[in-house]
Amino acid sequence: MLQILMLNGIQQRRNSFEDGVYGTTCPIPPGKNFTYIMQVKDQIGSFYYFPSLGFHKAAGGFGGIRILSRPRIPVPFDEPADDFTVLIGDWYKSNHTDLKAILDRGHKLPNPDGILINGHGPNGSTFTVEQGKTYRLRISNVGLQNSHNFRIQNHRMKLVEVEGTHTVQQMYSSLDIHCGQSYSVLITADQPGQDYYIVVSSRFSAPILTTTGVLHYTNSEGKVSGPIPGGPTIQVDWSLNQARSIRTNLTASGPRPNPQGSYHYGMINTSRTIIIQSSAGRVDGKQRYGLNGVSFKPADTPLKLADYFNIGGVFRVGSISDRPQGRRLHLDTAVMGADYRTFVEIVFQNPEDIVQSYHLDGYQFFVVGMDGGVWSEASRKGYNLHDGVARSTIQVYPKSWSALYVPLDNVGMWNVRTEFWARQYLGQQFYLRVYTNSGSIRDEFPIPKNARLCGRAVGRHTRPL
Predict the structure, then answer these.
(1) pLDDT above 60: residue 251
(2) Residue 401: CB partners within 8 Å, gap ≥ 6?
(3) Of 34, 165, 405, 458, whose CB is crowded by the most CB atoms within 10 A?
(4) Which has the closest alpha carbon to 430: 292, 309, 300?
(5) What tens digit of pLDDT does each residue of 191-219 get?
(6) What's the rounded Cα separation, in Å, for the pair 312 and 142?
């Protein structure tokens, strides 16, 4: 089975050749292995990996990624007693090939069958703690479509990091974690010695799915008991207000010793506004999804290779507009052009009745606003231009918008996609080509010497060193 591995949230510096999506990277053949050669941008924090080709994500293969702060760079909280990776996500009992076949026939998938915590069903995952000590949980929603609410019976969580940004440290009784997102929390084992439910339930779905894990005290005198703690279900305002409360800790260091707040994104003028709007429809009698009227059609050659080797006829820059055009949904290999070192505003507009979740490869962006209704220039009056959180995956609530500021400081071909995986597979994605004609390795590294070549790039040469 051909395979590509995606490192979700990892920003490959000046190199999108091995970004881990089909638009940049040739698949690994069955029975073979591949070593990714990359330099990560200045990053710390919590991320995860998954198989990105086809519908392989539905088969599992997830794992957590931790990037630790360098020695002597202060972290804004004491070293925890232990550090746990918690991967949550909805799950189908059907094989990924069967799910893919349903989509290929032009149909929608049924609702997921359940939720897993670290690959296990109800009470299958246990996290052991010692009374009086504090622990870090790195929670990632690796699922296929649903937002999830995460909570621990009788324990409150202190949010400390979101996708590489140290946050203002606030206490939460539960957290909404949308598809593709990662959060770090601290919990203190300050309750009587027994076992407690860890609860994950779906949000904005029908039916509501729920699963449990166990927080086990080493001096526990009893198993989990009592009713499973309830959580929010379909309340959008509750989730929106929580999302707005998540802000950057301006005085904390990030990957470097200087404070995160030393970059004043709100004082930089944007040079361009990109508005991205989702849509759903049927093309040639089959269900498809798109952005700005274009449903992405994979090419026969990774786009980055075609760009590097000047192979014509693979894609066209500008095949997707930077504003909704009201056009009928159609198929194309959607690539949007952007200039290197520009500072842009991106607005995701969601006219549909579901929560959407979008990821931008190669970058962190600043979340400056989100609200209900249709975005307009007047919406900027409510922007957070001071301490909006920097992250790589953003939710957009039903009939709502979310706005981002992005410094385009990373040359390459970068995937912009929904994290609702069936919609991604059926076209709700495009590539942002951040370009400079300098030809300097200061701006973009040469193609890695071990880069796989496929499609029309077969027979070309990478480089001798």
Answers:
(1) yes
(2) 347, 348, 349, 350, 369, 370, 371, 373, 374, 375, 379
(3) 165
(4) 292
(5) 999 999 999 999 999 999 999 999 999 99
(6) 36
